[in-house]
Every structure is written in structure tokens, then in C-alpha cells.
Amino acid sequence: MEKVLLLNAIYEPLRIIPWQRAVTLSVLGKVEVLEEYEREIRSVSLTLRLPSVVRLIRFFFYRPPIVKFSRINVYTRDHFQCQYCGRRYPEDDLSLDHVVPQWMGGRKCWGNIVTCCLKCNRKKGGRTLAQSGMRLVRKPYRPMNILRWSYIAPHQIHPEKWRDYFHYWDPKWSAAEKKILAPIFPRGIL
User: Is the CATH code 1.10.30.50 the one for domain 71-132?
Assistant: First the structure.
């Protein structure tokens, strides 16, 4: 079924919600419907187009949850790119690799796990980077907020109508852009 992008009052993406919740919020007057799907839903006395993007009427201070450690979140953090050879792959052709092997005391945590292709995983084996002669494309890190950068993940096919709303919250904004936009947004948003 269709999902709906929920935005804060200042157009900041908050989360993806089920269409039923979006319709309920819309009927209660708590959100403004910005984009709609072609599909219609009907009741006995009402016909509505299914919302695609909704914006909260009142500002909601949102503190992003801690990103859980999972396979898909590691893939998303690494942009579905092998961290050894640098090529992008579909999810089925990727695996997780311990930078410091488990047998040498390497832990299963954000700072020690990277995305890698099956070929590079076999090549590295249970050795360290120095022993295998391989280097990382990017040092592994713990992501602060998965939603703000998950739109670049190729495994998630977002509706075309959502792209404009993700663009505004690109984490690669320059300091000059943030300075210009700072007076518009409440403190701590940018």
C-alpha cells in the first residue's frame, strides 16, 4: 500500500507514515496535503485522493531517534557502495565486513562494520586491512539521522513527488546557505 511523507511545519521531513494515518490527520485538520497520488479512496459520503506528502500545521520539535544498528542501515550509510573497491551494488550482492576481524577482537558496531561486495569480502578474508593490502573508501561512523540521508539509498524507491522535499534538507548544505536560511527556521533545525 502507499506510504506518505510527513513533513514538519517548516517542511522538514519527519518520517514516513501509512496512508491511513495521513488521511486521519487530514480529516482532523492537523495536516495540510501538499501532494497527492492518482489513486482515490472512497467512503459512503466522501471521496479523497490518496495523500503523498503532508505537512503538519503546527511546528513539532523533533529529536531524531538513535539510528539502530542493522544491515540495511549500514548499507544506507555506505550508499550501497563497497567500501573496498568503491563500486555500487544491489542489496543482494553486498555483505557486511568487520574491518578488524572478530577473531582479533573486532566488535559488531558502527565503527567496525562496513559494506562490501562479495568479491572483496572473499579477498580480504579474516585478515586486517594491512595484512590484506586493502584500503577503505570511507572510515565507518555512527550516523546521526538516517532519514536525512536515506533518500540517496538506491534500495528505496521513493515517489518522484518526494524528491523536492528531501532536497531542502540535504546534509551537504554549505555554511553560507545555512547562514542565509537560519533566520527563517527555528533554532537548532539547520
Answer: yes
